[in-house]
């Protein structure tokens, strides 16, 4: 069972640092941790399910405004 810190590390590496799961698998392997990519993917999916209520709440707040600005550069 992964800790919250490990899940946060995997998610931040994947989405903020753009580090694919196969590279994370290799990094963990070099550290002596055999965590298959399929396991990492399962954790990412489970985190997504748990974070969905937050996504929904944020969407609601954003869409309450008449104008929404994004910078997609």
From TrEMBL:
Q: Which residues form the signal peptide?
A: none
Which segments constitute the Transposase IS66 central domain?
2-73
Residue ranges crossing the lipid bilayer per the database entry = none
* Any Pfam family hit: DDE_Tnp_IS66
Entry-linked PANTHER family: BLL1576 PROTEIN
Q: What protein am I looking at?
A: Transposase
Q: What is the lineage of its organism?
A: Bacteria, Pseudomonadati, Pseudomonadota, Gammaproteobacteria, Pseudomonadales
